[in-house]
Design brief:
Length: 265
């Protein structure tokens, strides 16, 4: 059984003391590929080093919406240059809107749209962070697609929206990725969304080191080996086998991120 963790943050300090052991555990758990997301372009060197240390890791570059105030005049060109500098880069992100923790709405929207333009120019998918901003993200994507005449490819990562919101992004052609939150007893809305996503748009992730899934929720650090618990819980919600979830989400990740040639490692 092969699994792909489509959203990790292994460059965080929590992983530095024992990253080799963490890798050994994800290999034992059947995780054959990982996509490392990026919070800020300043992380690029550390993420790139990890990606080249471990052949099964691809990565992204972008600016998180909670760092939108750090956007500068040359940020767009910097991200574009970095994204073009390494064949292991498979996406732009994570980007998006977070109106739960910040209210700099105009700045976040400007940065989001700038990164959509980069992804479009480079023909790369986007990794979207969306919290308390589903209607605004939907509107921006709809306007972008109407203006450009083409769909944005990408994933709504660590999804926590309602089934209605989920359908918005499915209609826009997006993949929906579920993290450890889908295993929480209180996450009835997320579980309802997970039940209705079409199989060909489903992805799994850990978003480690955050959001450890049940039964590892009490641990201070989430890690890629635990993505199997997400797959297992999705199987229960959807009435499928874990093998079916693993096979489908792996195929979907390969299609979205162009991993067909590298996910065999």
């Amino acid at each position: 059984m092969r699994l792909i963790d489509t959203h990790v943050h292994l460059n965080f300090d929590l992983f530095q003391p024992d990253l080799a052991a963490v890798r050994s555990r994800w290999q034992q758990a059947g995780v054959t590929h990982l996509v490392h997301s990026c919070v800020h372009p300043g992380e690029f060197a550390s993420i790139q080093a990890i990606a080249h240390q471990f052949p099964e890791i691809s990565f992204a570059v972008g600016l998180h919406p909670l760092d939108a105030d750090k956007w500068q005049e040359d940020s767009s060109e910097k991200i574009k240059t970095l994204a073009s500098s390494d064949q292991k880069i498979v996406a732009i992100g994570e980007m998006g809107l977070d109106f739960y923790k910040a209210n700099n709405y105009e700045q976040q929207i400007m940065v989001f749209e700038a990164q959509l333009a980069i992804a479009s120019e480079l023909n790369l998918p986007v990794i979207i962070h969306c919290r308390d901003a589903a209607s605004q993200v939907k509107e921006i994507l709809q306007k972008w697609q109407k203006k450009q005449g083409e769909r944005v490819r990408g994933v709504m990562h660590c999804w926590g929206g309602t089934p209605e919101e989920t359908q918005w992004f499915l209609d826009l052609g997006f993949y929906i990725s579920f993290s450890g939150t889908v295993t929480f007893k209180s996450a009835k809305t997320i579980q309802a969304s997970a039940a209705m996503v079409s199989s060909d748009r489903l992805l799994i992730e850990t978003d480690c080191p955050f959001l450890a899934p049940t039964p590892k929720r009490g641990e201070k650090r989430n890690e890629p080996a635990y993505v199997g618990y997400v797959a297992e819980h999705l199987a229960k919600i959807r009435g499928e086998t874990i093998e079916a979830i693993a096979n489908q989400t792996t195929a979907n990740a390969c299609k979205l991120f162009g991993l067909s040639s590298v996910s065999e490692t």
